[in-house]
Amino acid sequence: MTEQTESANGTERVEPAAQDTPQVSPAPTAETQPTPGTQPVPGTQPVPGTQPVSETPPLPGTPPPPVEPQTLQAPPEPRPKKDRRVLRAVLRWTAAVVVFGAVGASAAYGITRMERTDVPGLATESDGRWDYPTLLKPPLPSGSPAPFADANKSGTHYADLRELLLPAPEGARADAALRGKDGWLPTKTFLAQYADETERGTIAQLLTDYGLRHIAARGWTTPDGTRTRIYLLQFNTAAVADELFSAKLTNYSLPSYRVRGADVSERDEDFPPSAEVDDVESAPYVESKPYGAEQVRQAYLSAGDTIGVIVQSRKGTAPAVPFQQTVTLQSQLLG
Q1: Using 50, 70 and 90 to split pLDDT, how confident is the model at 64?
Q2: In sequence order, what E strands does 121-179 have?
Q3: What's the gap between Cα 299 and its chain centre?
Q4: Cβ contact 142:159 at 8 Å
Q5: Average pLDDT of the chain?
Q6: Which residues of 133-152 are buried (b: 16+ CB within 10 A; e: fewer)?
Q7: Would you place residue 98 in the very low, low, confident or very high pLDDT band (cuts 50, 70, 90)?
Q8: What are phi and psi of 153, to 5 degrees?
Q9: Which helix (H) or strand (E) holds 242?
Q10: pLDDT grade, residue 190 (50/70/90)?
């Protein structure tokens, strides 16, 4: 700006006006009020116990008042674009790892629950096990103890013995000759599986002497030609059945009596201990080489008052796995 003045000769001389010295206001602090003339930020309240700070123009040539360091709040420096890209990439990969980890955990769990042949890339040929239906023990009569309960001193199976027979596996053809009358098999049908006539007479006398009550039986033939026969013989007490089993029908190295189709049988040393069932004693045997047109496997079971006889044969070679499976499942039903 300029200012006009009147001189002595009547002319006007313009002199520059003094420039205003800029005024520097102190920086606002957390405990100061807004500058007069400004509007407070909506939603804020003055700090109690503080007074408005009056602004006095500083004298010309004086430096601005010092600012307390703690009142300065420097604005955040802008993050470089490269850093932001790296951060986003890290977050994306972190999320991906979490998702893949969860999926991997569930997949691992699923594999542990699947059969080996169900896992792509790990499929192998079947080990020969048969597909049996779900096994359920029949209910006991009201107030009757289980065969191996402490209260059952005689080891009696109070459940219906016919319901304790192992069912045929999937795809098998039932053997009608073992159905018997009302599910009870005649003794002579059981004896017919033994090869020697003289031995059949001896076994018949033993069954009479030891007080055989009845026989339940079931048989089937699977699509591969394996024939299975299961016989459950029930006696009055566990003591009687165990003596007949251990002293008359079995020896450790070989069975006491030869079944049809088996020339020489010996103890099955390959029968795994894991296939045995608690409270049930088993004696497995296998026909030794050289055998004839078919191979025979057999096992005797002692479970309380019941003796189980399992015979399995097949043209050529009788596979071990389904035999072990059959023995184990039948033992579980009796145990």
Answers
A1: low
A2: 173-174
A3: 32
A4: no
A5: 76
A6: eeeeeeeeeeeeebbbeeeb
A7: very low
A8: -70, -25
A9: helix 238-243
A10: very high
Distance, in Å, from the CA atom of 168 to the CA atom of 228, rounded to the nearest integer, reads 9
Q: Cα separation of 331 and 148, whole Å?
A: 13
Residue 63's CB is within 10 A of a number of other CB atoms, namely 7
Residue 5: strand pairing partners: 13
d(CA 72, CA 5): 48
User: DSSP strand E in 251-319: where?
Assistant: 265-267, 281-287, 294-303, 306-315
Q: Which are the contacts of 46, defined by CB distance < 8 A and separation ≥ 6?
A: 33
Per-residue model confidence as pLDDT tens digits over 213-269: 999 999 999 999 999 999 999 999 999 999 999 999 999 999 999 999 998 999 999
- For residues 232 and 308, the answer to whether their CB atoms sit within 8 Å is yes
227 and 221 Cβ atoms separated by less than 8 Å? yes
Q: Are 210 and 300 in contact (CB under 8 A)?
A: no
CA dihedral 96, 83, 69, 37 (to 10 degrees): -90
β-pair partners for 6: 12
159 close to 136: Cβ distance less than 8 angstroms: no
Nearest C-alpha neighbor of 288 from the set 310, 318, 308 = 318
End-to-end CA distance of the chain: give it in Å, rounded: 116
Distance of CA 83 to the CA centre of its chain: 45
pLDDT-based confidence at 77, cuts 50/70/90? low
